[in-house]
Structures are given as structure tokens and as C-alpha cells.
Amino acid sequence: MSHPGAGEANRPDAAVDSDELCTLALSAARLGARTASDAQAEIRRQGGARTTKSSETDLVTEADRATERVIRDALLDARPGDGFLGEESVSEWTDDPRGDADDRVVWVVDPIDGTTNYVYGQPDWGISVAATRGGRSLVGVVIAPRLDLEYVATLGGGATRNGERLVVAQSPPLSQALVATGFGYDPGRRGRQGAVATALLPQVRDLRRRGAAALDFCYVADGSVDAYYETGPHWWDFAAGSLVATEAGARVTAQPLVAGPTGGPVATTAEPTSGWVLLAAAPPLFGSLSDVLTRLGAAGG
Fold it and tell me: What is the DSSP string of 117-139?
């Protein structure tokens, strides 16, 4: 599993207290959930903002920033030496994770995953908080406030939903699989992804498009869907959710869409500019779905 969410090379590091990180991540995510929920109520009171991050001052942008700020303050007040990479502050990221950042914890946060759902009052949106080291997730927390769901995972320690341990069920054959996916915002990419989905649909039970990558990984973990694939999400979209799926027993891969400065994969850089190619499923469904998606050119963006 060669990606920043989880990997076969990962192992718990004795120098990092995963329980401490998990407690902090959960506390910070809950604070963010309250902030985002309050902001959503205000947006709905004002008639519902039908734009998502349309300007530097719109209500959704402000909600995202306020939520990220609350989470960031909670994390870095407790651990001031840690790094922080958030969706709303990615432009501030200057560290090279292949250097000093490998020796410290970096928090990777999506303050509101599923922004369009959030704007429209749909329930499938959440707060995603991951503690990473060397580009790998040690702890992942995903909270969906409107659904009353809290997903928590620690590397090597398993995954839970609302405190109940998650174990991925035996997967059905591809023809009976319920598969989640997502579409990007760029019209060209959406068109290509729509064509892939159209070709895949007759080969599976059905497709689901909920619009929140972090939650899609968690839904694989708890059996709400059998698999999830998507091209284009960013590291903050899946750093926490992918660990939940992996620790529940799913097979997870994420590959960068672009090459690094030397031509190699960017498996530990902060963020490839075009996003990631993601796939999660319980074996052996993973292999059959991966083969079909490869034939359909799903990784083409």
C-alpha cells in the first residue's frame, strides 16, 4: 500500500504515543464538528448558500476556515512542535516531508469534507483529522455530525465506529458489489469519470455517489458499501478515512497522479497537484474491481 494513508511498511513507532494522538485527534475533531454544525445552521438560516467557496468571503469559505482554525489551535496548542497541513491552509505548507517532517508528527486535516452536501443540508459531510509521520497515517478520526457517527483508527490498533470494532465483511463477487465513487469539479474530468461510471455500472450491483471521500472509506470499513474508487481527491480527503478502512481489514491503495521532481512517485510529498487515484475494497473484490477499472482507464483523471 504505497500511499500516505496506510501501508504495509507502516508500523507503530515506540517514540510516538498513538493513544495520546488519538485522544487529541478525537477531541479536536469534535470541536471542529461543533463549529461546522453551528456555521451550517447559520447558512441555512440565511436561505442556504448555493455556492461553495465562490469567493474569499462567502459563508462556506468562512465556515471552512473557522472550523480548520479551531482544529488547528486545539492540536498545536497541545503539541506546538507538530506540523499542520489543512485544506484551507495548504498554500502555507513549505516543509519537505522527505526531510525534517519525517521526524515529527504532521496533522493532515479536512475541516469540512463534502462541502456541497454541507451547503445543501445533506447529511454526508464530515470532519477528517489524521496524525501522520513520514507521510504515513498513525491515527485517523472522521466525524459525521449529522449522522451521529465517529470513526476512529490507530495504526496497528484497529478501527471503530462509535466505539464498536469494525471488521470488513467477506466481499461479494463484483457483479453483486455496491461500489461508491466520486466526481471531480473540473468539467473535463467529470466527463471522463462519468464515462467510466457508465461502463462500470452494468458490471456491478449499483453505484453510490455520496460526495465525501473520507466517509466513503469509512463506509467500506463498516459495510455500507463494498468498495470505493475515485480519481482526484487530495491527501486531506483520505489521510484519516483510508486508515479506518485499512485497519478494518480492507485493502487500500492510493497512487499520485503526477510524478515528482526526479520522475519518481510522490508518495510522501505534501500533495501532488492533480490529486490521487484511490481504491478500497475487501479482498478478493479489490483485485477484480481494480482489473476492471484499469481496463476502463479510470486512473486517467
Answer: HHHHT-S--EEEEEEEETTEEEE
pLDDT score recorded for residue 54: 55
- The pLDDT value recorded for residue 96 is 46
Q: Phi/psi of residue 86, each to 5°?
A: -120, 155
Chunked mean pLDDT (size 10), the chain, 301 residues: 38 69 98 95 70 58 92 97 88 48 86 92 96 95 98 98 95 97 90 96 97 97 97 95 98 78 38 81 95 92 64
For the chain, the straight-line distance linking the first and the last C-alpha, in angstroms and rounded, comes to: 20
Cβ–Cβ < 8 Å for 278, 213: yes
Burial (0-12, 13-18, 19+ Cβ within 10 Å), 99: exposed
207-217 burial: b if 16+ Cβ within 10 Å, else e: beebbbbbbbb
Question: Are the C-beta atoms of 301 and 192 separated by less than 8 Å?
Answer: yes
The position carrying cell 463534502 is: 114
* pTM, full prediction: 0.87
Name the 3-class secondary structure at 99.
Answer: coil
Judge residue 104's burial from the number of C-beta atoms within 10 Å of its C-beta, 0-12 exposed, 13-18 middle, 19 or more buried: middle
E strand or H helix at 85, and its extent?
Answer: strand 83-86
- Name residue 86's beta-bridge partners: 109
φ/ψ (deg, to 5) at 201: -50, -45
137: left (phi over 0), alpha (psi -120 to 50) or beta: beta
Query: Which residue stretches of 46-175 are H helix?
Result: 59-78, 115-120
Backbone angles phi, psi at 287, to 5 degrees: -65, -45
Backbone angles phi, psi at 82, to 5 degrees: -80, 160
